[in-house]
Amino acid sequence: MSQRRLVDTNLIVHYLVQDHEKHAKAAGRLFDACDRGDVVIVVLPVVLAECVFVLESFDGHRRTDIAAALACLISSPALRSETWPSTWAH
């Protein structure tokens, strides 16, 4: 069984914006491992909402661009969007 990783807003934003090289590379490695099926990434719905807020309010991105980026990101079969607390019930 693959390891599960609960990710936060900062990890996703740094990955998408590439504004902090060290954090963006670490996030990229995690998402690559997810694509290979080595790890399951869990994203809570509130984290996706926070990503939209941060990317729109602080970085000035349009919602259509944010939606496209997040849709691409969450399309990995090993990424799960789950509600609390079912994420940890297993």
Task: Describe the protein's topology.
Layout: E1 3-6, H1 9-17, H2 21-36, E2 39-43, H3 45-57, H4 63-73, E3 79-81
Parallel strand pairs: 1-2, 2-3
Defining key terms:
90 residues; alpha/beta; 54% helix
Please explain how this structure is put together.
- With 90 residues, the chain is of the alpha/beta class.
- It has one domain (3-78).
- It is built from four helices and three strands; from the N terminus they run E-H-H-E-H-H-E.
- A three-stranded parallel β-sheet has the order 1-2-3.
- The longest helix has 16 residues, at 21-36.
What's this, in brief?
This protein is of the alpha/beta class.
What percentage of the residues does DSSP assign to strands (E)? 5-15%
Assembly status: single chain
Structural class by secondary-structure content: alpha/beta
Instruction: Compute the number of strand runs.
Output: 3
Largest sheet: 3 strands, parallel
